[in-house]
Amino acid sequence: MRTDPLVDYDEAVDRYDPVLGIEVHVELGTDTKMFDGAPNVFAADPNTAITPVSLGLPGTLPVVNGKAIEYAIKIGLALNCQIAEHCRFARKQYFYPDLTKNFQTSQYDEPIAFDGWIDVELEDGETVRVEIERAHMEEDAGKNTHLGGATGRIQGATRSLVDYNRAGVPLVEIVTRPIEGVGERAPEVAAAYVRTLRDIFRTLQVSEARMERGNVRADVNVSLRPSPESPLGTRTETKNVNSFRSIERSVRFEISRQAGILDAGGTVVQETRHFHEDTGETSSGRVKSDAEDYRYFPEPDLVPVAPSRAWVEELRAALPELPAARRRRLLGEWGYSDLEMRDVINAGALDLIESTVAAGASPQAARKWWMGELARTAKEHETELEQLAVTPAQIAELQGLVDGRKINDKIAKQVLGKVLEGKGDPAAIVEQEGLAVVSDDSVLTGAVDQAIAENPDVVEKIKGGKVQAIGALIGPIMKATRGQADAGRVREIIMERLGLS
Amino acid sequence: MPSIGRDDVARLADLARIQLTDEEIDRLPGEFDAIMDAVASVSEVATADVPATSHPIAMTNVFREDVVTETLTQEQALAGAPEAEDGRFAVPQILGEE
């Protein structure tokens, strides 16, 4: 289907300066919808989480969910925005069966939050500041299922089925100003920006922010220009990209594709595009023409929202510690190097290590387990750290056993393996399977005497001053006790028995 | 005074998905002009110190609690639907052949 010639990515960013613009929609995690008391639920039976308002039935009237306003203000504050003193909802008119009213209740020229910014940290630690133009409130639309086409897509479908459970779910749409000057890192910046927002939504507890459920959806605008001094080029908007990896791939693809068009002397068509996970390519959606005229006007069924400054300041004061500040604090508390911290963040181990430390382990020990043995295990099973069948509390308990000299490092790894197999908590496993270090002198002394009797030549060496030969005695003892002997104590007993201590 | 032409009427009809006959498209510009003139007379009394308003009563912050209310059953929801399938509203082809 593709006709545009692609340009190698490195060449494309060498010849052109990419500019991004990103619109992120987040579904708020309120109990009910934006304008009615229907439950805000995922995956209910179709058309059961609805009221007459959700269906836009004649005579119904919307009423604003105060909690949704609170969440929208919190998002605005976390993004360093101004909060409007007075704003209104507006009708955005369009004909499409995902809403029953032939308009979406949204905000137009009076968004609840505007003029903000957020610092986005890339994987190598570099920070990019993204300016936020606005964050406005609106309602989500229903879900269409297209039938009769070959691939479930709207193209070629003969009819569609609509479920309005999602219609009216509160959304906040966050719009950036053009993101300039990021050059070849544009794909990475786009993904990191959305990830930063996702983390903020979770910290604020305003949304579960699950990408795979469509709680967070990104529309990514990309344009190219010959140089940073040139005026902005024509942009395309890739709609509803719903994973970080897809965001990165779609931007990369659009840059290569648009460079191909520009190289050939063509012009980029301003249009919406769709991203295809399977091929990593985008395809043309609809052309933005002047037929797209939403005829916004103020929603006459709703009165304006005018958050008092006292309320806004109350919400600001109650904001939780945001992810970037938390990372800086933990870096200081834990005493990791910048590189160690970055590895921890990139491995998705920050929360796990924080919980492990909270459960009593030292930051160094917590990092050693999660970034070492557990990271290897996760990689081996091609899964994420947080999916492993072990809790931070269990890791802290395991480390406690090591610190208390109940088990040694080698046994600890065995115990961890058993925890991962679901055999219980570390202390219980050590107890049940008799894995505790043997430091009982009567047991150890017997083993030592036996080793001494069996290795007279080694004993002679030690007595002759070659103390390092003691390893040849300790080795068999460790073996005889399946690695459970306290090696330090064994050494002491040998020296005592040989009269050398 | 703004004047509404045939093209404007045709475009509005298209946006509103209303099919008009040629005779209607000929007649409506004059009617729209009359409406526009009537509405424009408001600006004669609205001086600069009168703010734009979208609601007749000066109220703000009418919120409801975030509490679930009674919902419709699927049967009730679909009762008025011309066509339904699998608990969903069935609608005709959305995209025509292009």
From TrEMBL, chain A:
EC number(s) reported in the record: 6.3.5.-
Keywords: ATP-binding, Ligase, Nucleotide-binding, Protein biosynthesis
InterPro entries, sorted: Asn/Gln-tRNA_amidoTrfase_suB/E, Asn/Gln-tRNA_Trfase_suB/E_cat, Asn/Gln_amidotransferase, Asn/Gln_tRNA_amidoTrase-B-like, GatB, GatB_Yqey_C_2, Gln-tRNA_amidoTrfase_suB_CS, Gln_synth/guanido_kin_cat_dom
Enzyme class: ligase
Domain Asn/Gln amidotransferase: residue ranges: 351-498
Pfam families named among the record's database cross-references: GatB_N, GatB_Yqey
Entry annotated with the keyword Protein biosynthesis: yes
Catalytic activity: L-aspartyl-tRNA(Asn) + L-glutamine + ATP + H2O = L-asparaginyl-tRNA(Asn) + L-glutamate + ADP + phosphate + 2 H(+); L-glutamyl-tRNA(Gln) + L-glutamine + ATP + H2O = L-glutaminyl-tRNA(Gln) + L-glutamate + ADP + phosphate + H(+)
HAMAP family assigned: GatB
Quaternary structure annotation from Swiss-Prot or TrEMBL: Heterotrimer of A, B and C subunits.
Family: Belongs to the GatB/GatE family. GatB subfamily.
Function recorded in the entry: Allows the formation of correctly charged Asn-tRNA(Asn) or Gln-tRNA(Gln) through the transamidation of misacylated Asp-tRNA(Asn) or Glu-tRNA(Gln) in organisms which lack either or both of asparaginyl-tRNA or glutaminyl-tRNA synthetases. The reaction takes place in the presence of glutamine and ATP through an activated phospho-Asp-tRNA(Asn) or phospho-Glu-tRNA(Gln).
Protein's name according to its UniProt entry: Aspartyl/glutamyl-tRNA(Asn/Gln) amidotransferase subunit B
Organism field: Brachybacterium epidermidis
UniProt gene name: gatB
TrEMBL record, chain B:
Signal peptide per UniProt: none
Keywords: ATP-binding, Ligase, Nucleotide-binding, Protein biosynthesis
Keyword Glycosyltransferase part of the UniProt annotation: no
Pfam families cross-referenced by the UniProt entry: GatC (PF02686)
InterPro entries: Asp/Glu-ADT_sf_sub_c (IPR036113), GatC (IPR003837)
Ubl conjugation is among the record's keywords: no
Reactions this protein catalyses: L-aspartyl-tRNA(Asn) + L-glutamine + ATP + H2O = L-asparaginyl-tRNA(Asn) + L-glutamate + ADP + phosphate + 2 H(+); L-glutamyl-tRNA(Gln) + L-glutamine + ATP + H2O = L-glutaminyl-tRNA(Gln) + L-glutamate + ADP + phosphate + H(+)
EC number, UniProt record: 6.3.5.-
Family assignment from sequence similarity: Belongs to the GatC family.
Quaternary context: Heterotrimer of A, B and C subunits.
Alphabetical list of NCBIfam families matching this protein: gatC (TIGR00135)
Function summary: Allows the formation of correctly charged Asn-tRNA(Asn) or Gln-tRNA(Gln) through the transamidation of misacylated Asp-tRNA(Asn) or Glu-tRNA(Gln) in organisms which lack either or both of asparaginyl-tRNA or glutaminyl-tRNA synthetases. The reaction takes place in the presence of glutamine and ATP through an activated phospho-Asp-tRNA(Asn) or phospho-Glu-tRNA(Gln).
PANTHER family noted in UniProt: GLUTAMYL-TRNA(GLN) AMIDOTRANSFERASE SUBUNIT C, MITOCHONDRIAL (PTHR15004:SF0)
Name listed for the protein in its UniProt record: Aspartyl/glutamyl-tRNA(Asn/Gln) amidotransferase subunit C
UniProt organism field: Brachybacterium epidermidis
